[in-house]
Write a structure and sequence with these properties.
This protein folds into three domains: about 110 residues, Nitrogenase molybdenum iron protein domain (Rossmann fold), CATH 3.40.50.1980; about 100 residues, Rossmann fold, CATH 3.40.50; about 120 residues, Rossmann fold, CATH 3.40.50. Helix 2 packs across helix 7, helix 4 packs across helix 6 and helix 11 crosses helix 12. By secondary structure, the protein is α/β, with parallel strands linked by helices. About 40% of the residues are buried. The strands form three sheets. It has a five-stranded parallel sheet, with helices on both faces. It is flat and about 65 Å long. The N and C termini lie far apart (about 65 Å). It holds the Pfam family Oxidored_nitro.
């Protein structure tokens, strides 16, 4: 019935009953970017695990997956495609059958079950699906994605689930696990290279958590340390320290100057001392504002300070949701800001140079007319792959752009 109605004509009829506008509606700046949803981040995270990732969705939600130029390019992910009648009538049994068949042919250790907005709104019985799959011998770990949270929050919750589910036994004093890495968060493994090489020369085996092997839930030894490379990994690191006594340290060294600061944190964690508190940067004669994720922007700030020691560096973390604010709050210092609106940013800083993903530029230009905007594509915002000047991979390119800035 609803599909035979002319929605456009009905809307025009409704609008015709509204009183005529008085004056002009003020136009503000363009809206800020919409972040990838939680299941997009979890799907990217699970690429490092021996998992069979499955997304329960009506089909259209896969358009929200933002890994690479193509929505699902190179992504190991299966998903359902229910129509509206199937969802309304109940399709849990069909989902169980499809997942069980796919898992049997996958050769993977466990099924990572995710959801999206439509199944969440219609009240899909995830618990029943999980129990039915367990009865059929499919080991399932459910990640409570809804499509209404951001990718970083989804990854944070997923890592906590994995930390609880995968209880270690014993300790491997020669291994360091990387927590919080995914292609969506950092773009590639290039930003890990410098730190991994430094740890390898000190006799450690360094690997992304999950890649050291997983066999049907069997116990694995705990690493000597956890290296947290994104804010998403901090919650799991703290949980694993409290539950299993595994120390952790944070940071992302992108060049030699930052490596010294980062190695100091590593040494502190290796000695069992409490993590050091963030150090505020000194003021300078030029102000540079970085917009991005907490640990990534810190690494870039270290690199910039090594090249431009008289620069005042401010960092801002885009957090339009309360849950994202809570995730980023532990990384706040006097020279950082959580913001969800350009007005908050403009009231806090007047930078000479502003580095951010280009998707922020339409929103920020009206608020920072005198600042030079330098493009630093961030995969966690734009989801694009293969960019020649991705900011975490080509720090030299970023330095060159800053040096050529006419405001410098």
């Amino acid at each position: 019935m609803a599909r035979t109605r002319n929605a456009v004509a009905e809307l025009e009829q409704i609008l015709s009953t509204f009183p005529p506008p008085v004056g002009e509606i003020p136009r503000g700046s363009a809206p800020l970017p919409v972040l990838p949803p939680d299941f997009s981040g979890v799907a990217s995270l699970l690429q490092s695990w021996d998992a069979y990732p499955f997304l329960l969705t009506a089909g259209g939600c896969t358009g929200c997956l933002t890994l690479g130029d193509d929505a699902t390019a190179g992504l190991r992910l299966e998903h359902s495609r229910f129509d509206d009648l199937e969802l309304a009538a109940g399709c849990e049994a069909a989902a169980v059958n499809g997942i069980a068949r796919g898992f049997a042919h996958s050769g993977r250790a466990f099924c990572g079950l995710m959801g999206s907005a439509i199944p969440e709104l219609l009240g899909m019985d995830y618990t029943g699906i999980q129990e039915s799959l367990a009865e059929r011998g499919v080991p399932v770990l459910r990640f409570p994605c809804t499509g209404f949270e951001s990718a970083p929050v989804g990854v944070d919750r997923a890592l906590r689930n994995l930390a609880t589910w995968r209880r270690p036994e014993g300790r491997d004093n020669q291994r360091i696990s990387i927590l919080g890495y995914s292609d969506l968060a950092l773009g590639s493994r290039q930003p890990l290279r410098l730190g991994a090489e430094a740890l390898t020369t000190r006799g450690y085996q360094v690997c992304v958590w999950g890649e050291e092997g997983f066999g049907g839930g069997e116990l694995r030894s705990a690493p000597a340390l956890n290296w947290v490379v994104t804010a998403e990994g901090l919650g799991a690191a703290r949980q694993m320290e409290a539950d299993y006594g595994i120390p952790y340290f944070c940071g992302l060294p992108l060049e030699r100057y930052g490596l010294e600061r980062w190695l100091s944190r590593f040494s502190t964690a290796a000695k069992g001392a409490p993590p050091e508190k963030p150090v505020e940067h000194e003021t300078g004669n030029r102000t540079l504002l970085l917009i991005g994720a907490p640990i990534a922007t810190e690494g870039l700030a270290w690199a910039i300070r090594g090249e431009y020691p008289n620069c005042r560096i401010l960092r801002a973390f885009y957090a339009p949701y309360r849950t994202l604010e809570e995730l980023y709050r532990p990384f706040l210092t006097a020279d950082t800001l959580l913001f969800g609106d350009p007005a908050e940013l403009a009231a806090w800083a007047t930078p000479d140079v502003l580095l951010a993903d280009p998707l922020f530029f339409p929103s920020l230009r009206p608020w920072f007319p005198r600042a030079e905007l330098l493009a630093c594509p961030e995969s966690g915002v734009c989801g694009r792959g293969g960019l020649p000047a991705r900011w975490l991979e080509d720090v030299a390119c970023v330095m060159s752009a800053i040096g050529k800035s006419h405001t410098w």
